[in-house]
């Protein structure tokens, strides 16, 4: 692990702001971060990384406000609240029921774990969704029971099992060291890339910024949300909470669990579409004809004519945001992935563990929430740059790169005597919704004097139509 580059959180924010192409001399907002690592028992700078990501998003929103005449803001972040945001999925409930219970098969989450193989290497297996469960259990020829999975995995070489499960349509990752990841083709593909990639990919005239104010700065911005689970949906939830018209589009036969929709769907509308059907694809293309942003979290959108290049070609001025675990155009572009798998492959889980046994960070999740805030910041930065420079833009977030970025922030000392996270420090907000009473962590930053938005209520999948509500900004 790197022990250099011990940047302060403010310096990390400055670096991220520079990557996003925001001229710091044009932004007069103040960023205040209270506290810092070590906050929780981890050798990595979890609180500092999350604080920086949250502050960077707040700074981008404030810069947007300044660009349309608002006064400079003060963006405040608390390190302990940033840790709570990293474990938001564990702190969210619907009518008192933890959202982890509100899945098709709650036992499937219990099967997601590290398993030791015959070569004494570890592999992390995911069985959360039916197709992923079937791939793991089909290759291992066992029922979805943890003890049976563990026994079967012990007869496999770890790398052979990784290839077999991924070839069967599942997702998994062998636990590698950071050095092994750096030497792996998928790891080498990501070396040297910024944690948020933002680039102009096409021509187009400048587009005016939204004229929203206060807690609705993005009013008039239209976003097509083709994402699922956590990273992409949380990023679009952040944008919806700031007034954007977000339409979340889901394939009817691949729904996210109810609890996940309730926790990540705030402020969005939801419609069904199956892009394999020409009429549904045509309806989504019509939506994109007047959209500002397309956010995707699925592999190979080019097969539906929705690659960033294709969208920019048919709709100049669109901002396309891609979330991927391993890199959308790299050696593992055809492999799916989740937060835990990125931790496993990149060396992060090995460093979190002890005595040769890997572990996830004490917050359980890492990349998803970091990626969400970084991607939302990149989206706002691209909209702002579009207003000044014109053009179509692409923002790319890769979970494996997020892991590597956190590692590169340097090691933490004095963490071994800290306790695991207990009761949350962050305020828990409660609101009635169509799902029941949703209790979740409050927005983890404060913006003054503009005010910080609160969570907006979610809506069920497929409860609306493929249409826009707002007039749009372009």
Q: What key attributes describe this structure?
A:
474 residues; alpha/beta; formyl-coa transferase, domain 3; seven-stranded mixed β-sheet; four-stranded antiparallel β-sheet; 36% helix; globular; CoA-Trfase_fam_III; CoA-transferase family III; CoA-Trfase_III_dom3_sf
Structure description:
This protein is α/β, with parallel strands linked by helices and about 475 residues long. The protein has a domain at about 100-185: formyl-coa transferase, domain 3 (2-Layer Sandwich). The chain has helices spanning about 10-20, 45-65, 80-85, 90, 105-110, 130-140, 145-155, 160-165, 180-185, 185-190, 230-240, 260-265, 280-290, 310-315, 340-345, 350, 365-390, 400-410; strands spanning about 30-35, 75-80, 95, 95-100, 115, 120-125, 170-175, 195-200, 220-225, 245-250, 270, 295, 320-325, 390-400, 430-435, 435-440, 445-450. The strands form 4 sheets. Strands 8-14-13-12-9-10-11 form a 7-stranded mixed beta sheet, sandwiched between helices. The chain has a 4-stranded antiparallel beta sheet with strand order 4-3-16-15. Strands 1-2-17 form a 3-stranded mixed beta sheet. α12 links the parallel β10 (about 245-250) and β11 (about 270). The model has no long low-confidence stretch (mean pLDDT about 95).
Brief overview, please?
This protein has 474 residues and is α/β, with parallel strands linked by helices. It contains 18 helices and 17 strands.
């Amino acid at each position: 692990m790197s022990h250099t580059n011990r940047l302060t959180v403010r310096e990390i924010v400055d670096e991220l702001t520079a990557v996003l192409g925001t001229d710091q001399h044009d932004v007069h907002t103040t960023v205040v971060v209270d506290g810092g690592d070590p906050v929780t028992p981890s050798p990595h700078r979890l609180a500092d990384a999350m604080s920086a990501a949250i502050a960077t998003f707040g700074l981008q929103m404030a810069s947007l406000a300044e660009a349309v005449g608002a006064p400079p803001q003060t963006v405040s972040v608390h390190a302990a609240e940033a840790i709570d945001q990293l474990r938001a999925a564990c702190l969210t409930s619907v009518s008192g029921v933890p959202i982890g219970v509100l899945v098709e098969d709650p036992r499937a989450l219990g099967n997601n774990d590290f398993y030791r193989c015959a070569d004494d290497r570890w592999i992390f297996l995911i069985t959360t969704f039916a197709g992923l469960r079937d791939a793991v259990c089909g290759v291992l020829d066992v029922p979805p029971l943890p003890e049976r999975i563990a026994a079967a995995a012990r007869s496999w070489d770890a790398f052979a099992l990784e290839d077999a499960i991924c070839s069967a349509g599942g997702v998994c990752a062998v636990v590698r060291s950071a050095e092994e990841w750096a030497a792996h083709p998928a790891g080498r593909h990501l070396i040297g890339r910024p944690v948020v990639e933002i680039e102009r990919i096409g021509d187009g005239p400048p587009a005016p910024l939204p004229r929203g104010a206060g807690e609705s700065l993005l009013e008039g911005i239209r976003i097509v949300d083709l994402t699922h689970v956590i990273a992409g949906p949380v990023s679009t939830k952040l944008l919806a909470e700031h007034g954007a018209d977000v339409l979340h589009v889901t394939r009817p036969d691949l729904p996210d669990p109810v609890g996940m929709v309730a926790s990540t769907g705030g402020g969005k509308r939801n419609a069904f579409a199956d892009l394999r059907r020409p009429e549904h694809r045509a309806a989504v293309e019509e939506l994109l004809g007047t959209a500002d942003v397309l956010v995707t979290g699925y592999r190979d959108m080019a097969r539906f004519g929705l690659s960033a290049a294709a969208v920019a070609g048919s709709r100049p001025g669109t901002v396309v945001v891609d979330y991927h675990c391993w890199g959308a155009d790299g050696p593992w572009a055809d492999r799916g992935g989740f937060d835990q798998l990125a931790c496993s492959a990149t060396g992060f889980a090995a460093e979190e563990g002890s005595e040769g046994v890997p572990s996830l960070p004490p917050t359980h999740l890492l990349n998803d929430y970091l990626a969400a805030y970084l991607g939302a910041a990149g989206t706002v930065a691209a909209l702002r740059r579009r207003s000044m420079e014109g053009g179509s833009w692409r923002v790319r977030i890769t979970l494996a790169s997020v892991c590597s970025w956190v590692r590169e922030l340097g090691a933490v000392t004095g963490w071994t005597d800290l306790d695991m996270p207990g009761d949350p420090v962050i305020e828990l907000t409660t609101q009635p919704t169509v799902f029941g009473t949703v209790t979740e962590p409050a927005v983890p930053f404060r913006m003054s004097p503009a005010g910080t938005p609160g969570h907006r209520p979610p809506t069920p999948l497929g409860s609306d139509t493929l249409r826009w509500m707002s007039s749009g900004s372009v």
